[in-house]
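Hey,
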Amino acid sequence: METFKVHILGCGSATPTLRHYCSTQVVDIRGKLFMVDCAEGAQRLLLEAKISHNRINTVFLSHLHGDHCFGLIGLICTMGMTGRTAPLHVYAPSELEEILDKLVDFFAAGLEFNVTFHPVDTTKSMVIYDDKSLSVTTIPLNHRVPCCGFLFSEKPTLPHIRREMIDFYQIPYSQINNIKCGQDWITDEGEVIPNERLVTPADPPRTYAYCSDTKFMPQLAQLIDGVNLLYHESTYTDDKFENAAKYHHCTGSQAATIAKMAHAKKLLLGHFSASTNEQTLLQQAQAVFKHTILAKEGMIVDVR
């Protein structure tokens, strides 16, 4: 199975604490690294995770609150000081473009690489990134400022070769890719070996949904239905329900409700308030959706 995993670098909210850094993740799909939000401390967290910042070519920012984006300009400066030449692509709400240009001009003049900005319409669900391995679709969210999540969808892979059949029929390696693409094999005696005898089905494509700061939105379930892994903000426990509504955040049980409605395979809770009892949060969420775990710095979660 191809690599598809999520590195949790920071999972706190608002301000860093001794327990948590603010929101920062790296998604690894088939060896391609994508940063999702980039808070203060992102560079140190990359070092601790043994992830080279120069392997990151794309950054997705959910919204323009500091606990999700204050680390970006520092990361860009360090990339410049270490000789980067490959372009860096930044996907974020359009309001950031002018600010980012000024920050780069002031703090990182003379970069030897381009910082290419891609404005994101946070009000629509649309594909904003697409390559041969995956597509990334926006998930509109309801926060105090324009905000969206991101759905990472793996592209289908080719079937698996049955090695014992390849050996039995002495099929040359040069033909393996053709067989993966659906071709039958014809032996020297003229016997046609159907393709289905030579391969086993491909692994089903996987999906990862990152739902950043938002009020409870039942309609999210339709956009991420069947998701393999859902990261959903869970700032408060149920007794802080009024705070969640006031500040456009969610409780753990609300996040679990979304996971249950979306038929998710696993729920990952994060964006914890400094005052939140995380074990209580987890218990409340698991009472709704049992396949729930807490995010933690340094955690690597396989999407399966």
